Amino acid sequence: MSIQLNDIIESLLFVSVEPLSAEKVKNVLTEYPEDEIEKALEQILEKYAANPGGFQIIRTGGGYLFSTKPEHDPWIRRLLRVNRKNKLSPAALETLSTIAYHQPITLAEICAFRGVDATHSLKTLLQKKLVKIVGRKKSPGKPLIYRTSERFLTYFGLDSLKDLPSEEEISKLLEEETDED
Amino acid sequence: MDRTLEYQVNLDVFQGPLDLLLFLIRKKKIDIHDIPIATITREYLAYLDKKDRINLEREAEFLLVAALLIYIKSQMLLPRERPLEEEQDPRQILVDRLLEYQKIQAACAILRQKEADELPKWKRDAPPPHFMSEEMELTEVSLFNLAEAFFLLMKKKEKKDIQIIRGKEYSIEKKMNEIIKFLKENHFLDFTEYFESQSTIAEALVSFFCLLELIKARIVYAVQETLFQSIKVWLRKESLK
After folding, report:
1. Most CB atoms closer than 10 Å: which of A94, A132, B29, B154?
2. Smallest Cβ distance to B122: which of A67, A81, A151?
3. Which residues does chain A have within 8 Å of residue B119's beta carbon, measured at their own beta carbons?
4. Of residues B105, B205, B169, B153, the one with CA closest to residue A177
5. Rounded to an integer, what distance in angstroms lies between the CA atom of residue B120 and that of residue A126?
6. Secondary structure (3-state) at A129
7. Between A90 and B157, residue with greater pLDDT
8. Does pTM top 0.80 for this prediction?
C-alpha cells in the first residue's frame, strides 16, 4: 500500500513541539497540492475529534498540536512526578495580561498600569518564556520593549492574540460582579 | 468595627494601591465614575493607621495614591470662573486608571480560567525527563550566564598563581570528543566542577570554546536548576545516535 498523505501529516503532528500550522505542512510537503493537504488535515481533525483514545488534537497558537485529554491529568502528573500545578502567581498573571493588552510595552509602562513594581514578575515571565524582548524603545534610556511570546498563546490555549478576552467579555464579567454585590 | 476587621483580613490579597482603592470603592458600593474623594481618603488614612508594620515600598505607593486623591480634592475645591468641562474633571485621571485596572483584573480572571483548562492538557513541551525532583525548575541558560560563570572561575584560577611552563597544545576537536565521551559516561557535566579540574587557563579556554561550539551545534545543552546554582551540561538525546 502506498504511503497515505493523512498518515504523513499525522506523523508531522506527532513530532511537533510547537503548533503545526497548515502553512508549515504545505512548506514541508511540497510534492502535494495544497488543497489536498487541507482536506487531509480536516480528515485528521475529524478522526481525532471522534477518537475516544488517550489524546486529541487541539488548535492553538495558529496551528495544531497533539495534547493529552484533561481527564487523564492525575495519572500524567504521577508519571512525571509533578505534584503541584505550576500556575502563575497573581502578580505574574496581572503583569502578563497588562503586556498582552498593551504590547509592545516597556517595564516602566507596565508598572504605571499596574501601580506596583513589576520587575520581579517580568523576570518570572521571561524565564517561563511567556514574554520576550523585541527591541529597545527609541526614548531616553532606551528601555527594553516586551511582547507576549508564541508560548503565551499555547499556554492559554489561544489561537492568536485576537482570541484574548474581548471588551465585551470583560464588561460582561464586570457587570456580573456588580450584580453579585 | 466589623469593617476594620475585614480590612485586616484582606490585606494580603492586595497587590497595590489601585487594588486597595478598587476594594474601597466596591465596599462602599460607589460608582467608579463618582468617587467621593473625602470618604475614600479618610478610609485610606484609617487603613494606614491600622497597620502596625510597614512595608516601606508598598506604603510609599499607597501614599502616592493618597496624595493623588488629595490633589484631586483640592482641585475640586478651587473656585472657578467657569465650570469645568467634563474631560477636565481632575477625577478623570483616577477614573481612567481604575477602569483600565479593573479591565486587566477581569481579563486576568478569564485567563486564569483558560490556564486551568489548558494546564491538564499535556503537550510535547514537557521538560527533559532527567530524574527531576518536583521542585526543580530547569532554565536553559544564556551565553551570558555561561560566560559569567567561566570568567568567575578563571579569576579564581588566576589567584592560585599556577606556575606551569610546559607548552601543551590543546586541540578543539580532541577536547570536544573528550567532553562528549565524558557526558556519555557521566550523564551530565557540572560546569564549575569541570573547569576546576582543568590544569591550565589555556586548557580551560579551549574547553570553554568546545562547550560553546557543542551548544551551538545543538549536541549538548546547558541548564541551571535554580538561579545561582551551578550550571549543568547535558547531552541532547537526539544527538546520541
Report:
1. A94
2. A67
3. 73, 85-87
4. B105
5. 22
6. coil
7. A90
8. no
